[in-house]
From TrEMBL:
Annotated protein name in UniProt: GntR family transcriptional regulator
Coiled coil: none
Organism: Pseudoalteromonas luteoviolacea DSM 6061
Sequence similarity: Belongs to the CvfB family.
Domain (Conserved virulence factor B-like winged helix) ranges: 216-273
PANTHER family: CONSERVED VIRULENCE FACTOR B
Record domain Conserved virulence factor B first S1: where: 2-62
Length: 275
């Protein structure tokens, strides 16, 4: 299938390159400088398949930044009358047609896109009109369910994220305790699914499990720093955020739990391992 990585058999090797058995695609050409020297006719080689400027199937052994059906943050290298050409990490750029650009793209900028096969040209293309690809099924998520996130946009309320590559969600600013940027991938947790399948997402594991995990991080950091950290009950929330990517409230709960377990001593602006 075009736009995917596959293992194909080398049928013939010529002075220009190798011809691979592309099955329903027919012969797929792999340039000579892309063919590993040790491979011979009859061997299998892993390649990424794309179309050249004439629409013929070609192959590369270079790893693309994304395959068909996947999301990726790609940079616009050039814009012409047909659309924006984006760097896919291989010799051939991928086209984002004008009618698939939302917002309109600018040269040198990067955009979160999804790769798809154009029905008319049968070529691999990119679209930043993500509304075409998400929220097409009911949002059947459980509270506190762990999900995969891709940061899609920054809004007035927080960060719009793609959940499990199928739904949009929102991470509100007041729950963000780490740096976030467009295209970033991370784990998250469903806080709630509101009316209209609007999904609120947290970056931190809710409840006692989160506090327990944070406590382990704090103990590990204390061990790394000779049993002492200049963070305590009265420390600045920004310092805590920078050190542990969490809120001051969660930090205080975690160190309180460690104190009750007899593992640390707490001062106003510091904690230390109990000897």
């Amino acid at each position: 299938m075009l736009g995917t990585k596959q293992f194909l058999m080398i049928e013939e090797i010529s002075a220009e390159g190798a011809y691979l058995d592309g099955k329903e695609l027919g012969d797929v050409f792999l340039p000579l400088d892309e063919k590993p020297e040790y491979l011979e006719e009859g061997d299998n080689v892993e390649v990424f398949i794309y179309s050249d400027n004439q629409g013929h199937p070609c192959a590369t052994t270079k790893a693309p930044l994304a395959q068909v059906g996947e999301f990726a943050l790609l940079r616009v290298k050039q814009i012409n009358k047909v659309g924006a050409f984006m760097d896919l990490g291989i010799a051939k750029d991928v086209l984002a047609p004008y009618n698939e650009q939302k917002p309109k793209m600018r040269e040198g900028y990067s955009y979160l896109v999804k790769l798809y096969l154009d029905n008319a040209s049968k070529r691999l293309c990119a679209s930043s009109n993500l509304n075409k690809f998400v929220n097409k099924t009911p949002a059947n998520y459980e509270k506190n369910q762990e999900v995969d996130l891709i940061v899609a946009a920054k809004t007035d309320l927080g960060y719009k994220v793609v959940i499990n590559e199928t739904h949009f969600g929102m991470v509100f600013f007041n729950t963000v305790f780490k740096r976030m940027y467009i295209g970033q991938r991370m784990k998250g947790y469903v806080k709630q699914v509101r009316e209209g399948d609007k999904i609120d997402v947290l970056l931190e594991k809710p409840g006692i499990e989160k506090i327990s995990g944070l406590g382990e991080q704090i103990l590990a950091k204390l061990e790394e720093n000779n049993g002492f950290l200049p963070l305590g009950d009265k420390s600045d929330p920004q310092q805590i955020k920078q050190a542990f990517s969490t809120s001051k409230a969660n930090f205080k709960k975690a160190i309180g739990g460690l104190f009750k377990q007899g593992k640390i001593d707490i001062e106003a602006t510091s904690i230390s391992l109990r000897k």
